[in-house]
Amino acid sequence: MANDSKTWRCGKYELSFDRPRIMGVLNVTPDSFSDGGEHFDPDAAIEYGLAMLDAGADIIDVGGESTRPGFTPVNPDEEARRVLPVVRALAKEGAIVSIDTRHVAVAKAAVRCGASIVNDVTGFTDPKMVEFVKTSTCGVIVMHAGEVAAPTRTHATVQLDTSAAAFVAEKAREAAAEAAREAEKPARRRRGKLLGEPKSEAKLPGGVVQPSLPFGEPEPTSESASEQETPAAEQTAAAETVAPAPAVTEAASESNDRLAAMMRRSARREEAYVPTSQLRRFTLPDSAPIMRRVMGFLSDQARTLIHAGVSRDRICIDPGPGFGKSANEDIVIQRETAKMASLGYPLMCAVSRKRFVGAVSGVTEAAERDAATFGVCLGAIQAGANIVRVHDAAGFAQFLNGYWAVAKPQPRRAFVAVGSNLGHRCDNIRAAREMIAEIPLTCVSNSSKIYESEPAYETRQDAFANAVIEIKTELAPLVLLDELMKIEAELGRDRSKKAKANGPRTIDLDLLWMDGETHGGKKLRLPHPLIGERDFVLVPLEDLMHDPARFFRYNGVEVKEPEDRVGHIVGELGRM
Q: Could you tell me the CA-to-CA distances from 163 to 166, 168, 386, 522 in Å, in that order?
């Protein structure tokens, strides 16, 4: 199950998996398979990314190149132009941002702009990408993209000739063929490798071998085929009369792009499939050869990264549904989620709106496959998947919160700061405490004393009464925050635009920290970004824990010295 001991270190963030984590898909492209063009404008993309965070996404996966079947490769410069403003803006709001790219130049630029994760669709088979991530602290996602079934071979019916003459003739042919092979061996070895040997593999520093891309060999284009049929003399003459072609930038030529070629083959295989009357013994292909290729590649690439210097706790794996795989093969892989989870790395389920989800649900339009996507994701979570990558982050957050509340009892500790400087201040704080205790799936476990403090930020107002309440809750952070906002409204807090942001208020409730949660966005930031400078929060916390400054520094929060803080405590007002 998702609530295990795995952690994933992604730059300055550390994700725990006591709950499944939601990765929202943000395609800054004009041609993605389900939402192409909707968020191509940078401002629209930023707004949508923030909306996904406020709806419950833990990570935003930003991509500037569509890799759907039949996609057109994008120049790295164009890809960077699309994604970097979006990455920078989301990271500024405290979001955990993943950059979905196979180009090392784009990955480097995105990490400099604040991305915390590199999601490489080619599984870090480019030694340059490995060299980059080993020098950074970002999290990495190793994805398998490629065909998983051996090519089928057709067998023609053969009429055997059992005569003695045929036997003698066959033996003569075998002897001649063997002699020809023996004569050819020295020439083949002189060329550097034997016919049929695998392609040479790139080596990383330290002797680590980097495997070839898992996409298989791209089929020759019509241009290359015609060139093979042209006599050598004609090719030479043509070369003398035609001016040299300009150099092609990286990934700009679709015909030379192995990933694009693999995805074209995948699309044609799906389109060319015609049901036949031939009966099959089993509903799905044998899982063993499929999983050997998928799990073997993921394990090998993870080890390659570790040997290159990437720590194990930075690595996440993804079987790559839809990339070179048929619907039957994708179902086989999803059913083996538990085996992939047993490898010990955080495991991603990235099935959102994929073609096989449409096949099993009968939904033709990709954008209408969210409900079916949720069902597949739930099965993966139950089998051990830790992260789900979805287009409809808001819908899946609701789905997961409902399921988790019933299926997985999980009380977690949290701290809520309470303040008031209008009316009967202490009575307001005590009323808020009683109402917090009535929130569903929540109880109050402890409370600090009530302190009086100087006003912070907006200093021309009355002194505040402040306290911190320790709770245990089974609600998701954003759901808990909504409940706290309801209490504020009921106790008369004015949050209209005419009210000053830090002005007088009957009650103020801030969710400061929650066990295992890191979150960014406009609506909620966890840990609270201002907790380290507020004396009126840190002093009450001393009633509930030993050395709160040290505790929050360990959790990545910058805590100021007492003399540099705002809202200093000036006295005690009593107990709750």
A: 5, 9, 65, 85
User: Distance from first CA to last CA of the chain, Å, rounded?
Assistant: 40
Which tens digits make up the pLDDT trace of 472-495?
999 999 999 999 999 999 999 998
3-state secondary structure 110-140: HHHCCCCEEEECCCCCCHHHHHHHHCCCCEE
- Residues 238-284 pLDDT 10s: 343 334 434 434 444 444 577 777 667 666 665 555 444 456 678 89
Contact 118, 111 (CB under 8 A): yes
The three-class DSSP label of residue 245 is coil
Q: pLDDT tens-digit profile of 99-147?
A: 999 999 999 999 999 999 999 999 999 999 999 999 999 999 999 988 8
Q: Are 517 and 526 in contact (CB under 8 A)?
A: yes
Is omega for the bond preceding 540 within 30 degrees of 0, making it cis? no
What does the block give as tokens for 191? 């060329």
Query: Which amino acid type is present at position 261?
Result: A
Distance, CA of 489 to CA of 83 (rounded, Å):
39
Paired residues of 511 in beta bridges:
416
Q: Give the tens place of pLDDT for each residue, 441-465.
A: 999 999 999 999 999 999 999 999 9
The structure tokens 């590199």 sit at: 118
- Which two tokens mark 430? 């005590």
CA distance 387 to 19: 9
The C-alpha atoms of residue 425 and residue 430 are separated, in whole angstroms, by: 9
Using pLDDT thresholds of 50, 70 and 90, give the confidence band for residue 29: confident
SS (H, E, C) 470-511: EEEECCCHHHHHHHHHHHHHHCCCCCCCCCCCCCCCCCEEEE
Task: Quote the CA–CA distance of 365 and 354 in Å, as a whole number.
Answer: 10
C-alpha span between 137 and 122 (Å, rounded): 20
**What pTM was computed for the model?**
0.81
pLDDT at 181 over 80: no
- Considering only CA atoms, which of 212, 206, 386 is closest in space to residue 300? 212
Amino acid at 72: T
Distance CA 141, CA 513 (A): 28
Distance CA 466, CA 507 (A): 10
Residue from 262, 344, 333 nearest 299 by CA = 344
pLDDT at position 499 is 86
Radius of gyration of the chain (CA): 30
